[in-house]
Each structure stands twice: as structure tokens, then as C-alpha cells.
Amino acid sequence: MFSEVVSLLPAGIINGLMFGAIYALVALGLTLIYGVLHIINFAHGAMLMLAMYMAYFLFKILNIDPYVAILIVTPAGFVFGYTIYRWGIGKLSGGRDQNILLITLGLSIILENSALVFFTGDQQTISLSYSYEAFDLGFLYLSYPKVISFVASLVICLLLWMLMTLTDLGKAIRAVAKQREGARLVGIDVEHVFAVTFGIGVACLGAAGCMLLPIFYVDPYTGNIFVIVAFTIVVLGGMGSIVGALLGGFIIGITESVGGLILGESLGQVGISLIFILILIFRPTGIFGSKV
Amino acid sequence: MTFSLNTILLILLGLLTAILAPLGISSKFQLDVLTLIFFTAYIGQSWNILGGYAGQFSFGGVMFFGTGAYTSSILLTSFGVPPIIGIFAAIFMGAFLGLIVGYLSFRSGLRGSYFALITLAFAELLRVLANSVEFTGGGVGLFLTYAPGLHNLQFNSPTGFYYFSLVLLVISLVIAMWLERSRFGAQLVAIRENEDAAEALGIDTLKCKIYAIMIMGGMGGAAGTFYAQKYLYIDPPISYSIALSVEMLLVTIVGGMGTVFGPLVGSFFLHIVNEFARHFIDTPGVSLIVYGFILILIISFLPNGLVGLFHRARKKKDDNDA
Amino acid sequence: MMLEVKGLTKRFGGLLAVSAVDLEVAKGEIVSLIGPNGAGKTTLFASISGFLKPDEGAVNLDGRSIINLKSHKICQQGMVRTFQITQPFATLNTLENIMVGAYSNTSNKNIAQLNAERVADILGMTSLLYQTADGLTVAARKRLELARALATNPKLLLLDEVMAGLNPTEIDEIVEVIKGIRDNGVTIFLIEHVMKAVVNLSDRTYVLNDGKLIAQGTPKSVASDPVVIEAYLGHGAAKMMTNGGKS
To answer: Do A and B touch, counting CB pairs below 8 Å (3 needed)?
Structure first.
């Protein structure tokens, strides 16, 4: 038994890394929004689900490859996020932080059930011409989609990091995150920056949705699976930390995959909630600490 | 809040109507709907104690329900303990779970959204565990046999379950009324309004919050037994369903947090909305979309819910009369 | 001694906020703590009253050690603090706010209400009993803060700038109120910026600067102490003043 697990370990770790990169992307959106706006977007999972549906229909109706659809769904995510913050959440917010949590909970209920009404509750999957082609690593076959998703996620994380550190927009966002009043005083349109940040956060989901679709399924509740995972990654990496989200994504991806190997598929999921609980109780600032 | 004579009369009248209702309602379906409304109001009240009065919002309130359901059901199926005793075990286990979750989270200073999310994670953890271990029946779930009788808390007509839910509801209302009049209730409200100030004024905030979550847990535990005996089947997705966690906070927020009748008002209101929505478009999900909008609107514009709206209207009338 | 503080030290990371402070407040006294902004006064209060955990030192209340007790326990022992930035229970009315304090001695609602009304009367808040706290004026909120603390029936009150933001008339009123409270047997230790009130009220004054006590004595003697003047006005200020402005 033990030697069996050990022999499967490399495969488990690599599989975990593949999913971990996408998890990281999902968590990145969440952590960015938290780091700058100090709000928790509970509708994050539901928005991911919408992105997956969009990629799904682009593929089914227009026959656009999901990896190409990244170029469409990501900007769409940005527009959706910007709009919904600027004229929705941002206007309705104020008061206690739980209020935003509840408002975004309401939003997720609306999105999930709209999906149920319009797209039915059936699970949808797609298969690409290259879905079943794979790299042979000797101890593991890695399907093309997994590898492409992995690489693309890393590239997008890198782009986001460059956006945050190298551009004026990134500077403005970081200024607002650190000192919103100060930023307002030097003439930064804080509400606009908030909405842009929210938009970027949702854009990350657009990309993540496209990359998940070829290797997962979508139904109105798919988002729920990822939302707790994303929260876990975010608290693990430290709320608001980009590097933390990336590392956290890999750690969770590997934990889940190796945990599943050792404990079995169903009990393996215990790991995620357990990690989440333990971190909140013992290290509420996360393992990697610092903010955006 | 003190109760005026009028209010007391109104409450007694409402209670009398509720007791006599089965005589006037011939349709089993309608009686079932009322049962469901009472049940949701009851479980909403459990959320209200911690969320509405003490200001600690939980997103995983279902964990107590599920644990209670499993407690009495396992006692019944594996050890032959009748549910009329099992329900007390369920209450105990719910409260005990509340103690553990409350101690761990409040002890480490979790507040606001963090507390909400950690309760969600606890509920998820329990769902996965219930799915994976054997004594819960795993993913297959637990089937209970139908054997009507008070000792089984099963009844051969909807009227029986109606009264069962009414008893639960009345107990929950009495608990909330006691909170309104007691030191403990005042302390919970003080914690909700300003925890530091409450601590400075000699309130053991940790202890009070733990007591509150234990009351919530005990109430949730009894709700689990009720459900199991009524529907005779439980499994992990039902017992630890996110939907029920949401429903209990939804009815309370819509009706009015931190008020005695908020959960009941919210439960009635949302069931009416549900019937309406179903009347026009009979597709699953439509009423939930409406619920989502209602939740957002209430949070944004009516923080004291429908009961608050009623109070505001009455205050306005008083001001005009004066 | 009502309050004895010995060698109290509190650090935030590398920053020494309160450094080896010794002070005493005798039963029935009104003692004030003054010092420039950022001197560590509120941190000292918070460390005494259990809101912050001091790194070193001892705190005794009426002869019993209260170090490491949680703040609600300290309140139950008879010492209660108010907050510099008022912390009302915003949606509750004045009566309910004060009752929360009164409940620390009784679980009976009627007794709590009677005590709360009595305290409200002492503070001249009877007409505000049924107003919600978030609608009160700054002055009324300061009084509410005081009233709630008083309703816990303390031996020792720690008042953190209850006069900040009040106009001269309001200050005179609250000075009288505080004297009245002392005359009823409550010892008072207060942080204050309003010098007139400090001189009027206090039997003795401590001066804190950069976390260290730099002077103590009667308010008048402290106010003319060169060390204190330097702390407030900068290096060389005392010399300037004694030379009549010529340097």
C-alpha cells in the first residue's frame, strides 16, 4: 500500500500542479478584489460558472476553441465585473463587511439560478479534437488540455503581476489598496479604480473558465466547488497577496490530488475545508503574509 | 422591547388561530405548506439568535441541522432509541457542536466575514465526513422506517407534523421573547453593536457568543430530527445543504434580524413570493432568482427587514397622531 | 492604594510605547494623566484595563493583581474605562445603552432599568433616555460613555479624554459631573488635554512623554515644570520662556 502510494506520488504532484495553476488564477481574482476593496466576493464561484458557460456556448455555437475564447471571455469578464461593481455592488455597499458578503451571496443566488433557468441543470462537457492526445512522461500521461491550461494560467498570472508592478494603472491600484483616502487626495478616481480592480478580478475568472472547460464540466453549481477552494487559497496565501495566491494555488492543488490518492476520492476533499479552518484559527494572516 | 397589551392579545389570537387552523383547512397540501413555513421560521430563529441578536452571521448554520438529523436517526436505526428521546440527543449534539465551533472560532477572534466563511467550511467538512464514514450510511444515506406514533415523532396525517412544527415554532418564539427581556439578550445585542465597548462594560463576550451559538446549535439539532422523521430519509447533501444555510439567513434578514417575529414574517413572505413566482413561471430556480434580488434589496435599503418597515410605519403614524 | 502600576511596559514590535511606568492612585483621588499626542497615554490605559497585554510590569487594583485579566473581568473587579473615540451601542437608545452597564451588577431587568435611570439623572440625560445613540450630539455621546461606565458601579473610573470636542460650557458642566461622581466615592483616573479642566479637577497629575513618565505633582507645579514644557513645546522652549522670550 505504502509503496504503491509512493510510486503514484509524482503523478499526483504533477496533476495537482496542473489544477493548482487554474486554482491560482481563480484565487488571484478573489485576492486582488479583497486586497484593494477589502470586500469578499461571494459570487466569485458563480461568476466563474458563467465564464465557463460562455466558453461552452462559444464552442458549441461558433465552434471557437476554448483557448482562443480566452481572448473573448476575459475582456467580457472585465466588462461584466466593472459594470456590476460600478453600478451595483459599489452603490449598494457601505456599513459592515458582512453586508457586502450578503449582497454578493444574493448575486450568486441570482446567477446560479438564472443559469439553471436558461441553461438547465444538466452537466455539460466538451471534447476537443486534441482532448485525448497526451504527453507521455513515462510514469504519467498528461493530456494536452491540462498542459495548455497550466502554461496559459502561468502566463496570465505573469501578465497580471506585470500589470500590477510595471504600469501606471497597477501603481494606482496599489496606491488605492494602501491608502484610499490619500489616493483620493492626489486625484485618483478611487471609485473607478475599485471598479477596474473588480473588473480585473472577474477577468481572471473569464480566463480560468476557458481553461477549466476542456478538463472539467460545467453546470449551474460548478462555481460552488471552486469557491471554497478559492477562499482556502486566499487565506492560505494571505488575503490580498498575489504571490501568496499563486503558491497557495499550487499547494492546494497538490494537497487535493495527493490527499485524494492517500485518503480516497471522497475523503480527500476533507483536506480543503480542514486547511481553511486551521489557517483561520491559527494563522488568520495567512502563511505568506503581506498584501498587494 | 416590552410587549403592550395589544401585542399580547395579537400574539394569543395568532396562536389560537394556528392551533385551530387544521380544523378549517381541509387540504393536506396547504397544511404541509404551513408546516414548512413554521419549520423554516423555526430554523431561521435559530440563525437569528446568533446572527440577528449577537451579530455573528453564519453561512454554515445547516451543520447543526445535519448533525441533529444524523444523531437521532443513527440512534434509531442502529440502537433502536426512539426519536422522542433521540431528539434530546440531537439537541445535545447540536449544542455540543456549537460549543466546539464557537470556541474555536470566537477564541481566535474571528468576526464578520471570516466567521461566516469558517462556519461554511465546518458545514462542508461535516458533509464530506458524513459522506465518507460508514456509520452515517455514507453517500447512500439513511432510510428510516415509517411507524407512526408519538414515540417515533411520526404521524399518520399532516396534522400531526403541523402541530409538531407549531410546537417548535412556539418554543423558538418564546426563546426570542426571553432574549428581548433578559440580561443575556441585552448582552448579545451589546456585542452586536460594539464588541469592545461590551467587553469594557464587563460582558464576557466570548462566553456570551458561545452560549448563543450553542442555543442555535441545539435548536438546529431538533430541526434535524423533525426533518428526518417527516421525510424518512437523510443523506449528506440534504443534511449539510448550503441551500438550507442560506434559507435560514434569508428568512431572518428579509423578516427582520434581531426581532422576535422577523423569521416568521420572512418565512411567510418568501413562501408567498414562491407561490406567486411559481404561478407565473413554473421553472425551478425562478423563485430563487427573486429571493436573490429580495436579499440584495433588503440588505441595501431595509436593514431591519419587513418588521422594521412595519415599526417605521407605526412610528410615523404615532408621530402624526401626536 | 486604589490603583498601583509598577514597571509597566508595552511594546509594539520594536516600538516602545509605554516604558517602565510606575504610578499610584489613592482611594477618593482624582488623578490626571497628560502628555503630548502620541505619548502613549491611551496605550497605557489600554494596558491597565486589559485591552492590551503588557509585556512587563504589575497592575494592582485595590490591592489585588489584575495583570493578565481580561477586560470584562477587570470591570467586574470594579475598574471600568471609557473610550477616547466614543463607542456607543448605536442602534440602542440611551436607556438601553446605560442598562448594559447596569446589568453588570444584576440580572434583573427592572433593577437594571432603575439603576440606569438613576445614573442618567446624575448625568443630566433623563430627557435623552429614549433617543437612539447614533442620533446623539458629541457632548451627549461623551456623557453616555461616562454614564454607561458609571452604571457598572465601579470603584475606579478610567476616563479617556471625555472633554475632547466639547465647548467651554459643556466642559464646565462635565467637570462638575466628574467632581460629583468622586464625591459619591468613586476614584477617578483620567487622560485629558483640556488644561483648564486638568487644573480644576485633579488632585495630582502625571506627565507621560515618549512612553515614559517625566513629571508628577500638583497640576500647577507640573504645568511650570521645565521638563514638561520642553516635552510639549520642543527642546529649548523652557529656557525661552524663563528668559521671557529672549534667547
So the answer is: yes
* Contact criterion met (CB below 8 Å) for B92 and B218: yes
Residue whose C-alpha cell reads 458563480 in the numeric block: A46
| DSSP line for B171-216 | HHHHHHHHHHHSHHHHHHHHHHH-HHHHHHTT--HHHHHHHHHHHH
Residue labelled with grid coordinates 496606491: A175
More confident residue, A165 or B219: B219
Query: Helix, strand or coil for residue B132?
Result: helix
Please spell the DSSP secondary structure of B88-112, one letter per residue: HHHHHHHHHHHHHHHHHHHHTT--H
Domains and CATH numbers, chain A: 2-131+138-282 (1.10.3470)
Say how many C-beta atoms besides its own lie within 10 A of residue B147's C-beta.
12
pLDDT (tens digit per residue) in B162-187: 999 999 999 999 999 999 999 999 99
10 Å Cβ neighbour count for C207? 24
Min distance C50 CA to chain B CA atoms (Å): 9
Q: Cα-flanking dihedrals φ and ψ of residue B239, to 5°? A: -65, -35
**H-run or E-run covering A202:** helix A190-212
For C17, the grid coordinates are 510605547
Q: Which residues, 6 or more positions from B187, have their beta carbon under 8 angstroms from its beta carbon? A: B198, B203, B208, C100, C103
What is the pLDDT at residue A291? 41
What ipTM was estimated for this complex? 0.89
Taking residues B86-95, what's their average pLDDT?
A: 98
Taking the domains of chain B in order of start, what are their residue ranges? 31-240
Pairing of strands C204-209, C212-217: antiparallel
Burial bucket for residue C63 (CB in 10 Å: 0-12, 13-18, 19+)? exposed
Of residues C17, C1, A274, A29, the one with CA closest to residue B126:
A274
Q: Do residue A113 and residue B303 have CB atoms under 8 angstroms apart?
A: no
- Residue B167: how many other CB atoms lie within 10 Å: 14
B191 to chain C: closest CA residue: C89
Strand-strand pairing, C156-160 and C187-191: parallel
- Rounded CA separation C38/C36 (Å): 6
In chain C, where are the structural domains located?
3-85+146-242
The answer to whether the CB atoms of B132 and A277 lie below 8 A apart is no
Retrieve residue A271's grid coordinates. Answer: 483536506
Cα dist from C172 to B153, C148, C169, whole Å: 68, 20, 5
Nearest CA in chain B to A104: B296
Q: Is it the case that residue A160 has pLDDT exceeding 80?
A: yes
Q: What would the CATH number be for the domain defined by C3-85+146-242? A: 3.40.50.300
Question: HSE (CB half, 13 Å, CA atoms) of C88?
Answer: 26
A270/B129 Cβ within 8 A: yes
Residues 6+ positions from B73 with CB-CB distance below 8 Å: B86, B142, B144, B225, B228, B234
Q: What CA–CA distance (Å, rounded) separates C217 from B173?
A: 59
Task: For residue B28, give the nearest of B134, B122, B159 by alpha carbon.
Answer: B159
Chain B residues within 8 A of A236 when measuring between CB atoms: none
The answer on pLDDT for A199 being more than 90 is yes
CB-based burial, C122-135: b 16+ in 10 Å, e otherwise: bbebeebbeebbee
Q: Which of B320, B245, B209, B280 is nearest to B43 (CA)?
A: B245
C148 contact residues in B (CB cutoff 8 A): 197, 201
Element housing C81 (H / E): strand C79-81
Looking up cell 484593494 gives: A36
- pLDDT tens-digit readout, A244-275: 888 899 999 988 888 887 777 677 678 888 88
CB A97 within 8 Å of CB A39 = yes
The rounded distance, in Å, linking the Cα atoms of A281 and B152 is: 40
